[in-house]
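Continuing the series of single-chain predictions for the mutant panel. This is the parent chain; the variants come on the following pages.
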Amino acid sequence: MNTVGISRAVTATNWALCASQVAATVLQYGIPIAKVISWLKKARALWGGLRGIYYAIASGSVAAEIGEDAVSIIEGILGLDAVKKACFS
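Parent structure:
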């Protein structure tokens, strides 16, 4: 299995499992799960993974590329181990 490229890693993610792990957290914010999953997909495509996304949040790149709403939601859900495992493994 080729695990070198970012595009390969993005397509290997089970987005249905990711959505189920995100659902409980996102429901409290009242934002559609599909929208949050699209933010996560875009973040992965732009910054590659957790480390890159964390750096992009700290530098303000996420807010500039995806929006302020995305920043607060992504920050919240990336603190959950189940979400990190389902969406970034």
